[in-house]
Amino acid sequence: MRILIVEDNQPLAEWLARGLRQSRYIVDCLHDGAQADHVLSLETYDLVVLDLGLPRLGGQDVLRRLRARGNDVPVIILTANNSLEGRIGGLDIGADDYLAKPFEMVELEARMRALLRRSTGKKNPTLACGTLTYDSNTQAFSIAGQDLELTPREHAVLVALVMQAGKTVSKRTLATTLATLDGEVSIDAIEIYVHRLRRKIEASDAMIATLRGLGYLLRQRDAG
């Protein structure tokens, strides 16, 4: 899952990014509203964590412009203003959730997981493709109850595939999922990650099929 943090307090932004990366999210950080507005007009994210008190362009204006472009990415607002009016105002302009500072990382991550489940239509926190199981609360994969060891990028690719199990996911979509503002991921790299994943899930009855010219599809081996 690719997350954008927009927070002008750099120590706080770095703390958030570090915690979310430890939870296996792909994270970008920006520190002013104008830059965030520009990046959000070009890049695709699964969720945005947005502070309201931003330089150059306020968080409310970033959110208004985002929604005006028809972008429905889930947005959690962070703010020191915990008044009723502040919460209502943020929700009314298109935020999906509202978290007042100071807050605990565990609460932020729980809210993120709930929004990500809602946005993908996956209300059950546990997803399965045969004996391959993904727990979105712990971000862990397992095969028949045994934990599956994955590198961060292998994990991100398999999350993208299990979220769309039974459907084709293009190589370009997978590359975008892994990309950060510091660098892109090549199609060749995606092929390597998928090759490694195929070996690691061999003990399950799930498989990653290649649809030439289209992408990859995660399905059960005995599925048609």
From TrEMBL:
UniProt entry keywords in alphabetical sequence: DNA-binding, Phosphoprotein, Transcription, Transcription regulation, Two-component regulatory system
* Residue span, OmpR/PhoB-type domain: 124-220
- From the Swiss-Prot or TrEMBL record, what is one GO molecular function term? phosphorelay response regulator activity
Q: Which GO terms describe its biological process?
A: regulation of DNA-templated transcription
Q: Name one GO cellular component term.
A: cytosol
Instruction: Mark the transmembrane ranges.
Output: none
Q: Which SUPFAM superfamilies does the entry link to? A: C-terminal effector domain of the bipartite response regulators (SSF46894), CheY-like (SSF52172)
Residue stretches making up the Response regulatory domain = 2-116
Q: Which residues bind DNA?
A: 124-220
Pfam families in alphabetical order: Response_reg, Trans_reg_C
The 4-aspartylphosphate modification is found at D51
Q: What is this protein called?
A: Response regulator consisting of a CheY-like receiver domain and a winged-helix DNA-binding domain
